[in-house]
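Reminder: ligand-aware prediction takes two inputs, not one.
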Amino acid sequence: MKKTFFLLTLSSLILSCTKVKEPSTTLKTNEFAIVIHGGAGTILKKNMTPEKEAAYKAKLKEAITTGYNILKNGGTSLDAVEKTIHIMENSPLFNAGKGAVFTHNETNEMDASIMNGNNLNAGAVAGVTDVKNPISAARKVMTNSNHVLLSGKGASIFAKEQGLEIVEPSYFFTEKRFKSLQKIKEKEKTALDHDTKSAFYDPEIKDSKYGTVGCVALDKKGNITAGTSTGGMTNKRWNRIGDSPIIGSGTYANNKTCGVSSTGWGEYFIRAQVAYDISAQMEYQNKSLKEATKDVIQNKLTKLGGTGGVVALDKNGNMSFEFNTAGMYRASMDDKGELIIKIYKN
Ligand code: ASP
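Here is what comes back for the chain with aspartic acid:
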């Protein structure tokens, strides 16, 4: 009898020791919330003018307030993400839609994706040249096709059939981005080695990289949506596609865990499966959003040599902004309407 009691106590002790640790955040922080980014990179205060900084902040505010109002009025996170991203796609400040960077052939090829955390449905487009708002094309792929990712001409034909606005490719031209391409091409000519990496990502050319936009929203029903839209990287060639339209890399959402939108050097984000890894660490290791985003960006991505960051929201409305670059345009609004906008590290 005594022996059985001893064994029972011992086994329950062992069980309690090996029991999976409780998620560190089980309480609802926000009934609904929204986070956005406008790209990460070498964004330094010393290279900013007060006017430029004010312009970025005003646009980030306009974008996030649009999504916030949708959520506050009981709208869906899908609508909030799409409409918020429209504001940034329509602004020449960001590398998405109007303001997209140029390819080596002096064209603009845009990528976008969206994911619904409620049912894990997702849609994406890559290399579109004439769809005014690529994020809407991604949403249509998700809701009105049997596919997840459409590319190039086919994606444009689909978008047109869906009644989306198609524009002349010249609509996407901006002087600033065109100049960045010329500068990179000049450098490329004189470079000793024709390493495409250095051509794409010359840190001395401030506007040559990043500027992608992204949004994650949690609505009052507990549904998480994440979306990302980009022009990719300056001087990209051969119909290069980055991480932004790749589900699991640039975008991921799962109501059980979190929603993530990435920005940075796409090749590394694809290889590290950044967005999905964050969700997976929460699901399988019971990590908090903060722990998971920190590990993926500051540890795993950094070790690979990748640069960039993410904005993320968990199912309880906790937020995370993690990046390993000098800055990341970012903003958040909680269910009380508190707005935070930041650009630099601290
Ligand atoms: N991730 C994007 C790409 O590689 C670029 C960016 O986020 O700025 O296409």
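The first strand starts at residue 33 and ends at 41. The mean pLDDT is 90. We will return to this case in the review session.
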